C-alpha cells in the first residue's frame, strides 16, 4: 500500500493516508519506526501489525477513558472515537470489547440522565435529550415509564418560584419570557398557559 499523505497534527501525531482510502493516526516515534513517509510503501504485514498492536489497544483504552468520565450511549462513544481518528472497523472491535464487560449500557445511561434531570426538565425534553444521544426510541420509552416520577404542573410551579415569577405583577414581556423559558424545557403550550394564567 502506498502512503499518499502524512499530515502532521498536534502533540507529535500524524494522520497517515493510504492509497486504498484507509487512514489512521500514529505518534512520530511510531510512524518513524515503520519508515512511514509520504510516497513510501507500507506492507500488509506492517499495516496489520500497526492495527493489532497499536491502534486497537489504543482505541480500547480511549473508549474506557471516555466511559470513566461519564456514562455514554453507544452512538456517542462511537462518535467520540471517530473524532479521535479511529476507523469504523477498529471502533467495532473496541465496542465489542467494552460490551463484553457490560461497560456500555444505553438503558443505564438513559436512566441516569432521567433521574438527574427530571426535577428541571419535562418528559418531552428528556426524550429529546436522549434521542440526541442516540438512544433508541424503545429504550427511551421504557426508561421514562420506569424512572420519570415528576408531575409536570408541580415542576412548572417550582421553576416559576425559582425564577421569581409573580403572576399578579407579571407584565406581558415577563409572561412571554417565562413562556419561552418553559417551552425550552419541553413543556407543552397547554401546561405552560395553565401555569402562567
Mean pLDDT: 89
CATH topology of the largest domain: Arc Repressor Mutant, subunit A
For the record, the CATH architecture of the largest domain stands as Orthogonal Bundle
Q: How many independent structural domains?
A: 4
Shape: elongated
Low-confidence stretches: none
The CA-CA distance between the termini, in Å, is 70 Å
State the helicity in percent bands.
55-70%
Number of helices: 10
Task: Count all strands and give the number.
Answer: 3
Would you tell me the structural class of the helices and strands?
mainly alpha
If you had to describe this structure to a student in words, what would you say it looks like?
With 197 residues, the chain is mostly helical. It folds into four domains: 1-42, no CATH class; 44-104, Arc Repressor Mutant, subunit A (Orthogonal Bundle), CATH 1.10.10; 106-147; 152-196. It contains ten helices and three strands. The protein has helices at residues 28-33, 44-69, 74-83, 88-100, 106-117, 123-132, 137-147, 152-162, 172-184, 189-196, and strands spanning 3-8, 13-18, 23-27. The model has no long low-confidence stretch (mean pLDDT 89).
Amino acid at each position: 500500500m502506498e502512503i499518499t499523505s502524512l499530515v502532521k497534527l498536534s502533540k507529535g501525531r500524524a494522520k497517515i493516508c493510504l492509497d486504498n482510502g484507509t487512514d489512521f493516526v500514529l505518534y512520530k516515534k511510531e510512524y518513524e519506526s515503520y519508515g512511514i513517509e509520504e510516497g513510501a510503501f507500507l506492507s500488509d504485514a506492517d499495516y496489520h501489525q500497526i492495527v493489532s498492536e497499536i491502534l486497537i489497544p489504543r482505541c480500547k483504552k480511549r473508549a474506557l477513558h471516555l466511559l470513566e468520565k461519564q456514562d455514554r450511549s453507544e452512538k456517542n462513544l462511537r462518535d467520540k472515537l471517530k473524532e479521535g481518528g479511529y476507523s469504523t472497523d477498529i471502533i467495532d472491535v473496541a465496542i465489542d470489547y467494552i460490551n463484553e464487560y457490560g461497560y456500555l449500557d444505553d438503558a443505564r445511561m438513559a436512566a441516569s440522565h432521567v433521574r438527574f434531570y427530571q426535577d428541571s426538565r419535562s418528559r418531552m425534553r428528556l426524550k429529546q435529550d436522549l434521542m440526541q444521544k442516540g438512544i433508541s426510541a424503545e429504550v427511551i420509552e421504557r426508561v421514562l415509564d420506569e424512572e420519570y416520577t415528576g408531575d409536570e404542573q408541580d415542576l412548572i410551579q417550582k421553576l416559576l418560584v425559582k425564577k421569581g415569577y409573580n403572576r399578579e405583577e407579571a407584565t406581558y414581556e415577563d409572561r412571554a419570557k417565562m413562556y419561552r423559558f418553559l417551552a425550552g424545557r419541553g413543556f407543552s403550550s397547554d401546561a405552560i398557559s395553565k401555569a402562567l394564567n
